[in-house]
Amino acid sequence: MKEYLKRRLKKKIIVFVLSNLLWVLGMAVVIVVMSSMFMAFQSSEESVSSGVVSGNKNLAPEVLAHKSTVEKYASEKGISSEVPFLLAIMMVESGGKGLDPMQSSESAGLDPNGISGPELSIKQGVAHYYQTLQNAKKAGMADDKKAIVQGYNYGSYYPLWLQQNAKRHSVDVAEMYSRDYMAPIQRANGFPSAGTKYNYVNAVSQKDGRTYLYRDSGNFFYAELCFQYIAEGSEGTDATGDLQAGMDGFVVPLKNYTISSPFGYRILNGAPDLHRGLDMAANEGEPIYASKAGTVTISTTHKSWGNYIVIQHEGGAVTLYAHQSRLVATVGRQVKQGELIGYVGNTGDSFGAHLHLEMCKNSSLSSDMLIDPQPILFGKN
Ligand SMILES: [Zn+2]
């Protein structure tokens, strides 16, 4: 899509949503009903997810030149771990060129080209991303990075739309958003040809097989375009040698934390209850590092542990990292000590972002085999 049209589209949508909120909400109900009817017919197609385009492309030097500015504003918002995604977005938006490298003037409520320079563009672009991330957290999908990145193109409302329609982001679902949600709004807003297909041919669309987009209705390949620049395993920086050393070769798996609840028996609802691990409160998104080298044996979601990872260490002991906002390390991965494995979150049985760390003598994770992590990490008092 031409940059001008895209800016105009994004601005139009924001103005439209703000000024017609009730109408939009009513429309959303209709669309939910319609799309659930539609989904009944489409369910077999829906289960075939599109291939993920692997991230092996390099960021342009013009983007890397803005990296420290992106890091500055991401840090101000407490989202330093999002820098790789912000740089990928910049790469797709502008290649790092021009006065508005994040193409963020419209989300500031300014005219296209109303951004006076790269720094303001980046500041506003980070704020727009942050708002989408907040909505993703509200929608319980802070770990769905593609949904958040797609929201940079679709508007920060996108994760909430996903939640209301009981969906996770995929190219199929994003296409539905363009065609069934955005296009009708655009048509009602004075773009009569919104929603008609036009040719869109590049490496990403060709690999997918759909070489089209819907006019005036966003780019449903946007997250895929950006993720070309997110290499697997390079989402964050490892912390080898940079973490507080404990005993038996373990290190403290967080850099910034406060111990909030010890291991051991506590009284819960009048009865003794074993707290199986050590709770370390930290900001949502704080990186979690492997306490010791080993093999990732579990990386999944559990009702009470939330998103969690188990690492099997040499000699038999395992460590477990619960309530993560997002898992990075996958099953079978050989991790080094200090390698980034995921991010602190508030998933599962959790009240406030924290890492619940368990240590067990063996892989059984049975309660009589658990060890108190505190003396191992911090020594006996
Ligand atoms: Zn805990």
Automatic annotation (TrEMBL):
Q: What is this protein called?
A: Uncharacterized protein
Q: Where in the cell is it found?
A: Cell surface
What Pfam families does the database record attribute to this sequence?
Lysozyme_like, Peptidase_M23
* First-listed, main subcellular location of the protein, grouped into a coarse class: other
Every M23ase beta-sheet core domain range: 274-363
Q: Where are the transmembrane segments?
A: 21-41
Q: Which GO terms describe its cellular component?
A: cell surface
Q: Which SUPFAM superfamilies match?
A: Duplicated hybrid motif, Lysozyme-like
Q: Does the keyword Transmembrane apply?
A: yes
Q: What is the lineage of its organism?
A: Bacteria, Bacillati, Bacillota, Bacilli, Lactobacillales
Q: Which GO terms describe its molecular function?
A: metalloendopeptidase activity
